Amino acid sequence: MKKTLIAAAAASLALAGAASAQEVKIGVILGFTGPLESITPDMAAGAELAMKEVSEAGGILGGTIVTPVRGDSTCIDAAAATAAAERLITSEGVAAIMGADCSGVTTAILQNVAMANGVVMISPSATSPALSTIEDNGLFFRTAPSDARQGVIVTEILRGKGVNEIAISYTNNDYGKGLADSIETNFKAAGGKVTLNAPHEDGKADYSAEIGALASAGGEVLVVAGYLDQGGKGIIQAALDSGAFDTFYLPDGMVGDSLPAAIGADLNGSYGALPGTDSEGAALFAQMAEKAGFKVGAFSPESYDAAALLMLAMEKAGSTNSADFAKEVMGIANAPGEQILPGQLKKAIDIIRAGGEVDYVGASAVELIEPGESAGNYREIAIQDGAITTVGFR
Amino acid sequence: MTDILNAIIVFANFVLVPGAAYGAQLALGALGITLVYGVLRFSNFAHGDTMAFGAMVTVLVTWWMQGHGVSLGVLPTALLALPFGVAATALFVLATDRVVYRFYRRQRSAPVIFVIVSVGVMFIMNGVVRFIIGPDDQDFADGARFIVSARDFRDMTGLDEGLAIKSTALLTIVVALVVMAALFWFLQKTRMGKAMRAYADNEDLALLSGVNPDRVVMVAWILVAALATVAGVLYGLDKTFKPFTYFQLLLPMFAAAIVGGIGNPVGAILGGFVIAYSEVAVTYAYKRFLGHLLPESLAPESLVQLLGTEYKFAVSFIILVVVLLIRPTGILRGKTI
User: Quick check: A234 and B240 CB within 8 A?
Assistant: First the structure.
């Protein structure tokens, strides 16, 4: 009896050992709590969908299953995000990180944890221009474009409509400040005037003081570089209530169906742009998301692509060691090679295994430029009759 | 002449009108704090979250009423739901008093213990509210949004500047005045009100005169619940309902109560308006206002803003510190803290 027990225990240990040898973990570090918590579930679902797809098709490296492990970046608390990343790397042993989401915590995790442990990070949504120039030992990539690019797009759209004077209100964090500064620099360079570039705090009920200052400064259009469920909405409501501004420019964090629903007819005539493509991949991904039971929110295509790039780079390098596969990420994302759309990850793995080249296009038409960030495709929108209408792509 | 009118309108639109509504909301909140301090003798940190709780119940009842097609026409339906909110909040704070505060009252604990206990109650209420209604913005306002909108005002008067008066701003001021009048009538004219003032003034003497302490405490809590709910609902209607913002109101409300003279109801009202107007006036950019008044050559190029709007909350803090240093009893001689 005793012997059989020992044998069983040994066998189960061996089995467990075998299973873990066939598994690689990827950390999914996003703001499950905090100011982005409304879009985070769809982002995580996007990343996990890619891992599920690969695992169900037999995994990478000839049968290694990919398992997601979630960590909470909180979006705003650098200490909590660092601790979460530390836990994932040291006790869960993740091979790579899909994340983080907000620019501030992404920087903190990169500098304090990822570089110290030599682990690759691909962020789906950190857009601060500061992340382009940061020292990263070649470990950091992002499938989202830098806001330096968005500043150019904003300027093109505004100048195209003949706007000469703007006021900017930004959410007081790394994202808002980076974007606002990028818009100001580009708009001034294009000959426009920025009357005021001032921050607002999220989560307040009353923005009449902020609007008072912006109204005093004046301008034809108010650019609101904030979050649509947060202060950005409050700023627009307060501006309309006091008659300070009638037209608003809405950057990526401000585009969502809840905004026209909350503000009503007064928002008609405002416009903006957000990362997005009319590519085949985007449509495919929307179908896959629907089947998997989540919706394509902001940055969920980018999350899928970030996870897919990590896995394909591991396959290409034949290793789950960051030092090996970090070098492969750019090659996977860009031409030459066979174009890979969402849902074709197994095909990509087969091509790579056979020694071929792939050009990962994915759900967001990824094209990585130096130093490892998305070149950026933008969808220009306008609010017409209380609905978000796509005007074109840039 | 039109320049002067324009300047006055711009000032009214961005300082006078919003400040009056905000001041009335702070005053109602500060009244509740001052009442707890006067009668129960401690600083109630849970007051902000009591407001959130009352507003939450009102929001839920409002939604239910809206679902059944009940409406007040141009007035918000929330006014009909308000009595339900007050009742539920009164029950909640009475239950809190029974299971928490009464124990410490019988122990005759020091006020600082009560303060810490109220912090604990605050966290629990905070959690309850978020658990029931969630942490997000909730929309429950209906009825007419404006009495005069900025665009209509411009069309009507032909001036360059518009003056917007939100119906909720006027409603806030009217309801606040009614509630304050009722409170003062209660405190001055009724037997219970007099007993409460006697109890607040000198507990032992009041007990010797046959005042029933349990009843005084109970009525005080009901009044506090009513004030908190009204303040919370008006703030939510005028701005937006979001549980966490009531916690942030704690500092300006305490500042209002202390600046006016804590324990003194008139002081709480005065303090509310002092704090509200200081916050708005110090962070307002006077560029456009001065631009209308001054000749073109003198018109300011900069914003003429004393303090960035991101430091708005610091204003109440500074006033609080200054008052505590120079005149700890507050403007109207309340109790010393």
Answer: yes
